[in-house]
Design brief:
Main location (chain A): membrane
Subcellular location (chain A): Cell membrane
Order of helices and strands of chain B: EEEHEEEHHHEHEHEEHHEEEEEEEEEE
Structural class of chain A: mainly alpha
Radius of gyration of chain A: 24 Å
Keywords (chain A): Cell membrane, Membrane, Transmembrane, Transmembrane helix, Transport
CATH class of the largest domain in chain B: Alpha Beta
Largest sheet of chain B: 6 strands, mixed
Oligomer: heterodimer
Membrane topology (chain A): Multi-pass membrane protein
Distance between the termini of chain A: 48 Å
Largest interface: A-B, 26 and 35 residues
Family (chain A): Belongs to the binding-protein-dependent transport system permease family.
Shape of chain A: globular
Largest sheet of chain A: none
Radius of gyration of chain B: 24 Å
Number of strands of chain B: 20
CATH architecture of the largest domain in chain B: 3-Layer(aba) Sandwich
Order of helices and strands of chain A: HHHHHHHHHHHHHH
Helix content of chain B: 10-25%
Strand content of chain B: 35-45%
CATH topology of chain A: MetI-like fold
Number of domains of chain A: 1
Chain lengths: 304, 372
């Protein structure tokens, strides 16, 4: 077979994209559509699917009356609105520090990225539970320092604090993206600003931050999407408690389906979460015209 | 009154043990436009960055407007710089770019607006004030970069290869604009370029750098007429000086005789210390050679190639018996000459150059007087 004909062959081409196509259809498109159909039924996990009845928008309509849902929604929004800005600010701060030209800075960059490789895993969530347990690391440290221990996972406010901290601890991937963005800002802009007498702080606000907004935007979207989907932390560390104070929506979806077997209601909750994420993403995209600056048209070479 | 604006005194700079600037001393007078020129890696940009304060010298002293600024912050030196990349803030309008330094200084907005407007008018940017850099052409960006320097009214302007990102025709145009601007403002300027044409046309004084040292400094025509060494001789001038290998035969008070494979040539020359039999280089600019008839002239050869530029013609002549590459002869635009023609060349001895084996000039022609 000649070189040209293998590129022209439909069958060969289809074969190459088949792994993606099959994977997408099976694991994305099918669950996506199936969950929507399920969300319109009263399907229960222990029953045959054939026994389910079509009940229209009933699952959705009943949601607002569900106090657990309202509580979960509030907790979720709180969690997202606190973690996303904090994490972005923290990641940016570390990225700026790691962007300094210092000896051995590569080592520090690796060290700071490490938590993010481990961070999302179940094992770390388990470790976190021990760290914040009543006889855990934090309390032992507090005792050692002469303070009384705190029931971190037993009090609603501190339980939330501990799962928020777990999320902040995973700042690495956002940090790496920020770092790449910082590296992409031409050095001569800072030199020009130096000559103009701008302090480092003003350079950050007047040059770095505006030129970093595309990266900030990207990180913002990613963090919003991820934060709304947080599951490991509350599931493993707090189990959603105490008093549903860390009962994030993904955990509620999981428990409705696999603890209470309400497959239909759980699917409806998934779809509500999906719509919420989609709305926030759309809002972010709409808003970027007011605060995101794209400089890619800057072409130093070739005057005309 | 002290008329020096910039004084460098034995300045050196090493980057991790590698010496980039090896002891440079020079002076830039008030209102002077000094051009640093040299091949890439000669240290000219580093030298400019040392003056700007973007680098700190390893040793030596830098003075600007009478103050020792060797270790001063870039913003405290009274210098403004035009970068090769222009370094315009891409997210700010032309107006904000030009006014940036004034804004940092805390100048009232209304005053900034006035100053920016005045500078913009000088540079014909008045209608572009609200544009972003990405909506400007190369030449316009260049002018914004110059405006950003002008608005600060610095003691010294620094230009780091400002035209190298422009295409050839625009480069010529901007060169004229910069020359005009300098004539109007009389601003003290240091200008870095690798282009010797820019250096010749813009400079009051050229500083030729090579390997971190000054090869020669002086007014453009002085460097052209009396290059101190082979490096300067071949670097300044376009097309470059032809260099022929010769041996020194002898000298008396006002002339030197050299032996070539085409026989001896005698050149008027004073102050030449000559060791008979030593190797030397004869330097002939394309315009100091002319066509002559058979039996006349000192050199002969065959035409290899003819470049007709209209107003002038360059003939590439392979000299008989010389290993050297063909020499370039500048002739009249209408000259009647063909490839493979045999030509006889007369040397204008007053404009010929002679360099010893060490590359240094051997004496000089009697009519090129020494300055002072």
């Amino acid at each position: 077979m000649s070189g040209a004909s293998i590129y022209a062959s439909r069958r060969a081409g289809s074969l190459y994209i088949a792994p993606f196509a099959i994977g997408f259809l099976l694991f994305t498109a099918f669950p996506f559509i199936a969950s929507f159909i399920l969300s319109l039924t009263d399907a229960r996990l222990q029953d045959q699917l054939g026994d389910a009845h079509f009940i229209g928008w009933h699952n959705y309509a009943g949601m607002w009356a569900d106090a657990t849902f309202r509580k979960s929604l509030g907790v979720t929004f709180f969690y997202v609105f606190v973690t996303v800005p904090l994490k972005l600010a923290f990641a940016l701060l570390i990225a700026v520090v790691l962007n300094f030209k210092l000896r051995g800075i590569g080592l520090f960059r690796t060290a700071f990225y490490l938590p993010s490789i481990l961070g999302g895993s179940v094992a770390i969530a388990v470790v976190w539970r021990f760290v914040f347990a009543s006889d855990g690391l934090v309390n032992q440290f507090l005792h050692g320092a002469g303070f009384g221990g705190i029931n971190w996972l037993g009090e609603p406010s501190t339980a939330m604090f501990s799962i928020i901290l777990l999320r902040l601890w995973q700042f690495g991937s956002a940090m790496v993206v920020f770092l790449a963005g910082l590296k992409a800002i031409p050095e001569d802009l800072y030199e020009a600003a130096d000559l103009d007498g701008a302090s480092r702080l003003r350079q950050f606000w007047m040059i770095t931050l505006p030129l970093l907004t595309p990266v900030l935007f990207f990180n913002f979207i990613m963090q919003i999407v991820q934060a709304f989907q947080e599951f490991n932390g509350p599931y493993i560390i707090t189990g959603g408690g105490p008093m549903k104070s860390t009962y994030l929506l993904p955990l509620m979806i999981y428990e409705e389906a696999f603890k209470y077997f309400n497959l239909g209601y759980s699917s409806a909750l998934s779809w509500v979460l999906f719509v919420i994420i989609a709305l926030f993403t759309a809002l972010a995209f709409w808003s970027q015209r007011f605060w995101v600056f794209y400089a890619q048209e800057r072409s130093d070479k070739g005057g005309h | 009154m002290n008329t020096s604006r910039v004084i460098l005194d034995q300045v050196t700079k090493s980057f991790s043990g590698h010496d980039v600037i090896k002891g440079v001393s020079l002076e830039v007078k008030k209102g002077e436009l000094v051009v640093f020129v040299g091949p890439s890696g000669c240290g000219k940009s580093t030298l400019l960055r040392l003056i700007a304060g973007l680098e700190t010298p390893t040793s030596g002293r830098i003075e600007i407007a009478g103050e020792n600024v060797t270790y001063a912050h870039p913003s405290k030196r009274g210098v403004a710089m035009v970068f090769q990349s222009y370094a315009l803030y891409p997210h700010m309008t032309v107006e904000d770019n030009i006014g940036f330094a004034l804004r940092i200084k805390g100048m009232p907005r209304a005053e900034i607006k006035l100053k920016v407007r005045a500078v913009a008018e000088t540079l014909q940017l008045g209608h572009l004030l609200h544009r972003l850099p990405k909506a400007l052409s190369g030449g316009q960006r260049q002018r914004v970069a110059i405006g950003r320097a002008m608005v600060r009214e610095p003691d010294v302007f620094l230009f780091d290869e400002p035209l190298s990102n422009l295409d050839a025709s625009l480069r010529g145009q901007m060169r004229v604009e910069i020359a005009g601007l300098h004539a109007r403002l009389g601003a003290t300027s240091v200008y870095v370029t690798h282009d010797q044409v820019e250096a010749m046309t813009l400079a009051d004084k050229i500083v030729v750098l090579n390997g971190g040292r000054i090869e020669q400094a002086g007014p453009p025509m002085e460097l052209y007429r009396r290059p101190a060494n082979l490096f300067v001789a071949t670097f300044i001038g376009s097309p470059g000086m032809n260099i022929l290998p010769v041996t020194l035969a002898g000298a008396d008070r006002d002339q030197v005789t050299v032996n070539t494979t085409q026989g001896p040539i005698t050149l008027p020359r004073v102050n030449a210390r000559v060791v008979a039999g030593a190797e030397a280089s004869l330097g002939l600019r394309p315009e100091s050679l002319s066509l002559t008839t058979a039996g006349q002239g000192q050199l002969s050869g065959y035409v290899n190639l003819i470049e007709r530029l209209g107003g002038e013609t360059f003939a590439y002549v392979a000299l008989k018996g010389f290993e050297a590459p063909p020499i370039i002869v500048r002739l009249d635009g209408e000259v009647d000459l063909r490839v493979h023609d045999e030509v006889h060349l007369a040397i204008d001895g007053q404009r010929a150059h002679l360099f010893g084996a060490d590359g240094l000039a051997l004496g000089h022609a009697p009519d090129t007087k020494e300055r002072d």
